[in-house]
Write a structure and sequence with these properties.
0% strand, Ver/Plancto_CHP, globular
């Protein structure tokens, strides 16, 4: 048995919850787009593009956190869609996610602004409170 020094453990750039949320958003997006989970590393039928993933991130965040989504992301250190791209590519580097040759970090750049996408376009669903 050996002890690993703290310096050998890679330091996460973002809050651990941000990484968990990306995995949850990926699964959520696959379900929304009715894409099956990948059966093997070469299975591209389940592939989710960066822009598709960011649409899922937005929708899941609004469902889960509502108008607090931007604040939650800020707490995690996530300030733009590019930050989600950095998280995805960190996960790819660690072997926890896969990418295709078409996938690039730039796919996540400036896809939407958090203030507009998470606050300005937010709609409160009153159907359950007031009936349809």
């Amino acid at each position: 048995m050996s002890v690993t020094s703290r310096s050998a453990v890679p330091r996460l750039r973002y809050h651990p919850d941000a990484y968990r949320f990306v995995f949850e958003a990926l699964q959520f997006t696959q379900e929304q787009l009715q894409r099956p989970p990948a059966r093997d590393p070469d299975d591209e039928s389940a592939h989710i593009s960066g822009q598709e993933l960011l649409a899922g991130v937005r929708e899941l965040a609004l469902q889960r956190y509502g108008l607090l989504a931007r604040s939650v992301f800020g707490h995690w250190g996530v300030r733009s869609t590019s930050d989600f791209g950095r998280i995805v590519f960190e996960l790819i580097e660690r072997g926890e996610m896969r990418k295709t040759d078409r996938d690039q970090l730039s796919d996540f750049a400036d896809v939407y602004q958090f203030d507009e996408a998470l606050e300005g376009e937010y709609e409160i669903d009153t159907d359950q409170a007031f009936g349809s």
